[in-house]
Amino acid sequence: MSSAVAAALGTFTVSSTAGEAAAFCAATGLDCVGDVLPLTFPMRWLVGADVRAALLDAVADPDVVLVHESQIFDYSHRLRSGDSYALSLSTRRESAPERLLVDGVIRDASGLELARLETILRLIKAPA
């Protein structure tokens, strides 16, 4: 069952260097093409210190581990290394099983929407 109300998590400034993109491609077996970021690269931004801290605050349980379950990306424009973006995130809770649904919008400096994402994180109690 999903909670009806989404809670704003915040807007985060995100970017990537060409080296970070190349390391991501090497680690995932993807081919990098110029300065275009791989389609799944925004997942890296969700584990950045600021975003991760906000996600953990949203869960509000120090004994819960966030486990990646799935992701969906919908692009209207390509993302490029070297550019900065505004990543606006909101969350919704589900139970049975316990999940945190993370919805995001990526915008450029002018405010143009470039992509949307949805990530589902399972909330697993850490063993005692």
Describe the protein's architecture and organization.
With 128 residues, the protein is an alpha+beta fold. It has one domain: Hotdog Thioesterase (Thiol Ester Dehydrase, Chain A), CATH 3.10.129.10. It has helices at 18-28, 42-46, 49-59; strands at residues 7-15, 64-75, 84-94, 99-107, 113-125. The longest helix is centred in the first third of the chain and has 11 residues, at 18-28. It is globular and about 45 Å long.
Predict the CATH topology. Answer: Thiol Ester Dehydrase, Chain A
Overall, the morphology is globular
User: What spatial order of strands do you see in the largest sheet?
Assistant: 1-3-4-5-2
* The top level CATH class name: Alpha Beta
What average pLDDT do the residues reach? 93
Instruction: Let me know the CATH homologous superfamily.
Output: Hotdog Thioesterase
What is the overall number of helices?
A: 3
Tell me the span between the first and last alpha carbons: 27 Å
Major sheet description: 5 strands, antiparallel
Topology:
Elements lengths: L6 E9 L2 H11 L13 H5 L2 H11 L4 E12 L8 E11 L4 E9 L5 E13 L3
Antiparallel strand pairs: 1-3, 2-5, 3-4, 4-5
